[in-house]
Amino acid sequence: MIQKNKLLTLEPFNSYYLKSIWKDGFSSKDPEWAKWNAPYFDDYTPYSTFSNFEHSSIVEYLLSDSCKSICVEKRAIGMVSKNWIDKSTRWLEIGIVIYNSNFWHGGIGTQALKMWINEIFTCYPELEHIGLTTWSGNKRMMHLAEKIGLKKEAQIRKVRYFQGKYYDSVKYGVLRDEWHMQYKN
Question: 128-131 long-range contacts, Cβ below 8 Å, gap at least 24?
Fold first, then answer.
């Protein structure tokens, strides 16, 4: 567990941060984070070298304006993301992954997701809602969403089939005024 007083920042990805993410998240065959990151997606690929990783579509995505690196003491340990479900109707969803499990259970995800939501509401003053979708097998993500004040808005039952079992898709969200009432800046 990491100490809570360590400096946490959200930074645009660069080659230094990408090397840490490759090592922690994409160099092994079966990383722990991938088991929790919506395992109904069968899209994890390990990369045996940083060069192979560097030329992947994952890196293209990480370098886009949709992602930022979660850094602890200037070391990349994960990422936050934003994706437009429908930009014309201002429907945006966010995500978070901490690739290095040494940084789990220490409040880093809570702090990073709060920072990300604040940043998005600041950058998009017209945006009234931010959503987050997970699956019922990821109790930690559900807890995190509720802990920081996102409300469960939908639970679509038994639509995610994984390893012989059905799971629900669970959608959370927060409105701008709810967020600002809870976390006055």
Answer: 128/90, 128/175, 128/176, 129/90, 129/91, 129/92, 129/173, 129/174, 129/175, 129/176, 130/92, 130/93, 130/94, 130/173, 130/174, 130/179, 131/85, 131/91, 131/92, 131/93, 131/94, 131/171, 131/172, 131/173
What is the C-alpha separation between 20 and 75, in angstroms, rounded?
Answer: 7
Hey, is 169 helix, strand or coil? strand
* Per-residue pLDDT tens digits for 129-174: 999 999 999 999 999 999 999 999 999 999 998 888 999 999 999 9
User: Quick one: tokens of 113?
Assistant: 């997701």
**Residue 111 in contact with residue 143, Cβ under 8 Å?**
no
Whole-model pTM: value is 0.92
